[in-house]
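New to this. Please check both lines:
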Amino acid sequence: MKTKYIVFLLGVLLLGAVAKGQTQENRLKKHVYYLAADSLQGRKAGSDDARKALQYIENEYNNIGLQPFWGGDMRQHFLIVRYSVAVAKGAEVKVIDADSVEYWSQKLGNVYCNLVAVIPGSDPVLRNEFVVVGAHYDHLGVRDGQVYNGADDNASGSAAVIELARRLMQRRDELDRSVLICAFDAEEIGLLGSSALANELDRLGMLSRVKMMMSVDMVGWLKGGSLSFSGTGTLKDCDEMIHAAAESSGIKVSTRRFEQSPFGATDTEPFAKRRVPTLAVTTGLGSPYHKPEDDAELIDYKGLSKVTDCLVQLTCAMAQVEQPMNATGRFSPKHTDDLPFFQGGVLLGVGPNHLDFTNSAFRTKPLPAYQLGLTGQLNFTNHFGLQVDALMDGGSTWFPSGEDLLEGRCEYSQLQLLVPAQLKLILGPPDANVQLGLGGFYGYTFRAELVGGKGKNTVVQDVDLRQPHQYGLTYSLSFHLARFLSIGFSRLRAFNGVNSPLPAEARRCATMYQVSYIF
């Protein structure tokens, strides 16, 4: 009797352990530990190790019961046809059929592969519309003998999408629209997997039926912070849906209308550039981003489970008939092929400043000047614009003085409001261009003074401001990177004299090296 009791007790404990092992959190942990294991050598795109990750994810999709979107199987093979910095514009990848994979592998070496599965919607009309949820599974591979495991980037996103798919299959009767579940290859070398899918949907005339594309990229580092959604401005009522999903999931969220980072990109980009509403989902860059230390034991699995809960609720809401899913027609400047009509930001400038005496060949010795303020530009076309700035401008210069009052070196300084206006010629594409500017400026001087003498004999003399106005010519050359950063120089030369008590008229000249950050 006692033996039977012991066996029964052990059975109960075993069942409890199995049940515990099947919690969402433990499944997420299992996925991340497999995908970010040293044995997968960093899952470099196109490698045998990346294919092992692909096979793992495909097995999970099959076990969940997902259907292949393309009819045959879930795999979408593609090649890099032409590589360029304009990765997401459609000319760099070519989808190939499964029968030709071996041929192209022998000819080119690397053949890349996405997984594309579908949970069909139940509404006879809306099932032809799609919500796309994807995560890239590739990472950086091995560099200098160190394995870059990419636990947060992006084993975490791949794991979350697997469990999201499991949960959606359990609730598939609630889905009126179809949901595409995607695992993207080759994100780290240029968003190529998502480009391949966007290209193919576009070629088949199906892209207009994609009502939302979400990229789940680096979501394993919640750690008491918030889950970020960028791109809410691309879809009407998107903020409300996100906050409702967050409230029901017990998670903090932050939202941005558009993706803003000039240096980062995720798999939303190929879709956004084709005018599809997108959301970039992430817990941020708190993890060891693109470092060998990005390992599975550092992931916040409780947080990752909450992230998954939130994404399940949000995807369900987007796939239901009650939600119209109307695009706003607005997109991030980084996702458009045209410059926005208005750009504004902040400007910082430093450079040498001197005075030219018009009645002689004499010029003063330069001292540093500085500028700080706001910059704005109207772009009438992609090649022609008008830039107007409002800057606090301070500058000084010095020259020898023979006057008794200002014995030795005499320093002149002034502080003014400077308003340059330039017509701009824009050479190159919106993402990276060179701009030439020519125009004029107006300056209003608030304060000016002369400082002369040395030590105890230093004399400070205020300059009469009866003529505080300055005006003149300005021209510039600047390099604009990723639409958000501008680096260049601007030169200005005044047409009238500064507020100086000197008998000869002195006109200000300055060369300012400027950096602008455009919002």
